[in-house]
Design a protein that fits this description.
By secondary structure, this protein is mostly beta strands. It has no helices and 11 strands.
């Protein structure tokens, strides 16, 4: 069992930056691939980025490539999402998720555990 808690969301102006954190419980965190997803009001949850269990492999949605960076610290059981050059269209609730297969995926159903989410609002 893995419990995930996101933090770091907030209100920021367009062009600004935020860093989201996702703290995981459990001793097996390093075995899981981790993903970040987001959901805007009235829209489906969409993939943002994922990182393999080792941290060597990362993958991004086209909409955030070059602006967002996913990373992890297995010693701290934490995964991060650094978000730069934020745009109003990045406004959403951001969720982290854990994939016990260890490779990561763009698909929500591949993930076994989810956090409660943290709100990110980007004003124009």
């Amino acid at each position: 069992q893995v419990q995930l808690v996101e933090s770091g969301g907030g209100l920021v102006q367009a062009g600004g930056s935020l860093r989201l954190s996702c703290a995981a419980s459990g001793r097996t965190f390093s075995r899981y691939a981790m993903g970040w997803f987001r959901q805007a009001p009235g829209k489906e949850r969409e993939f943002v980025a994922h990182i393999s269990w080792s941290g060597r492999s990362t993958y991004y949605a086209d909409s955030v490539k070059g602006r967002f960076t996913i990373s992890r610290d297995n010693a701290k059981n934490t995964v991060y999402l650094q978000m730069n050059s934020l745009k109003p269209e990045d406004t959403a609730v951001y969720y982290c998720a854990a994939d016990q297969d260890g490779l990561g995926s763009r698909l929500t159903y591949e993930y076994d555990y989810w956090g409660q989410g943290t709100q990110v609002t980007v004003s124009s």
